[in-house]
Amino acid sequence: MRYLTVLRLIGVFLLMAVVWQVQAWRYGEQLEHQEELHANALNQQSQALAHQLVVAQEQRLALEQQLNTSDQQHTRELSDAQRNQTALRDRLATADVRLSVLLDATDPANGCAMPTAAASGGVVHAAPRARLDPAHAQRIISITDDGDNALIALRACQAYVRAIAR
After folding, report:
1. Alpha-carbon gap, residue 129 to 17, rounded angstroms
2. Residues 34-76: tens digit of each pLDDT
3. Where along the chain do its domains lie?
């Protein structure tokens, strides 16, 4: 009987060891399955992030190109305006062009006795004008140059902000 009890105990231990091993195999399979699912999820996340990165890079490059084009356009506008301003200053300096202002011939407070009608031998039928001193004309041109430059710079800034805000 003792022999049978020992055999039973050995059988129970063997059965427990087999059950233990089967459970370990099942648990190992479950862990492998979970690892596979986790690896797939990480792969999908990395692919999605890579796609987002490519899209962001494409958008950045498109924005850089747009800003570069806008910058070139505003630089060209500024250089054209400066060239025109320089030419106008040169023409004023050589008296090729004269700046003048309209006078109100009907205003007695202006202190100028200007005829209200054109002279009989004159061809000019426009309102009376007074020529500005060349130094004053240069200062006026300088002020308008600064204003033109400011407007061009403002348009460039506005275009930049619009491009960035998109």
Report:
1. 118
2. 999 999 999 999 999 999 999 999 999 998 998 899 889 989 9
3. 131-165
